[in-house]
Amino acid sequence: MKKKFWSYVLSFMFISASFMPYFRAQESEVVNYIALGDSIASGYIPGKIHLDKDCYAYLLKSDMEKCENKIICYENVAVSGQPTQSLLLQLQSLDLSNADIITISIGSNDILIPFKNLISTSLGCVSGNSIDEVANLFSQVQKNGIYARYRLGRLMNILSDISNNDIIKESANDIKNNIDSIIKTIKEKNPSVKIILTNFYNPYECLEIEYARGFVESFNKIKEELNEYLQENAKENGYCIADISDLGKDAKLININLKGENISFDPHPNKQGHQKIYEAIKKSGYNR
Predict the structure, then answer these.
(1) Do 137 and 125 contact (CB within 8 A), yes or no?
(2) Does position 10 have pLDDT exceeding 90, yes or no?
(3) pTM for the whole structure
(4) Which of 199, 207, 109 is nearest to 156 (CA)?
């Protein structure tokens, strides 16, 4: 009798153990994460390359996957070159009803486009090639090019008043209005979704060149104005800010290089920069 009893007990334990993985799977929580924005969110780096698994959005997705009993459904729909108005249009066709977390990096192109136009007007080059033309000037200056030094100095003098440029000021206002609309549109589609927005950094803050100081300080004014607005808007509309405002202070985090052979004036974060953005999002408390 005792043998039968224990055989039943052992059989029950064996069957229960067999079904445990099934019950665990049933208890797993599905988290839907959508990354929105521009080339920063998509992980773009010079050469029309995307970091893919090293961009901050994918790093965040990988971090969420470490949580026990969580299945992460990840979708990155960021578009390189996208300004705030384009993201507003994109939102009209996106289904966000099941999203649990949304990260956004947007607004840089609203400033970058007129910034490139200012450079092209000053240097007499095509706007699309203006960043490369500045890099070329720095390369020539490094080789003691006198005319290149004159042109670069003249450009930096023009850019030193960038925060007072009417087109740039109008673009900054567009950013404020459009981001407010972006947040409200997302909230209308999904009132309970958690939204984390990265704020603005000055990619040229790391420039340690005397004749670029006025330009850097003027660009900082734009950054500070926008970030102050975002801080207040986040409080009013209930979303989180991931603070990356100091990202541009460290040249190792941006694709800018003004020494050696591979001269670059590109404002995008590199692999190390994306790691910092990911860490800033974690600090913002996305998982609380």
Answers:
(1) no
(2) no
(3) 0.87
(4) 207
Reply yes or no on whether the pLDDT at 235 is more than 90.
yes
Which segments within the chain are labelled E, that is strand? 29-37, 44-45, 49-50, 70-76, 101-105, 194-198, 240-242, 254-257, 264-269
Query: How many residues are present in the chain?
Result: 288
| CB-facing half-sphere around the CA of 41: CA atoms within 13 A | 29
Token code pair at residue 227: 């970030």
Residue keyed to tokens 């988290």 = 31
Instruction: At 10, list the tokens.
Output: 């052992």
CA distance 198 to 104: 6
pLDDT digits over 56-113, tens only? 999 999 999 988 688 999 999 999 999 999 999 999 999 999 999 999 999 999 999 9
Three-state DSSP state, 195: strand
- Taking CA atoms, 287 is separated from 100, 114, 144, 190, 209, in Å, by 10, 37, 52, 18, 41
User: Which is more confidently placed, 127 or 245?
Assistant: 245
Give yes or no for a contact between 263 and 136, defined as CB atoms under 8 angstroms apart.
yes
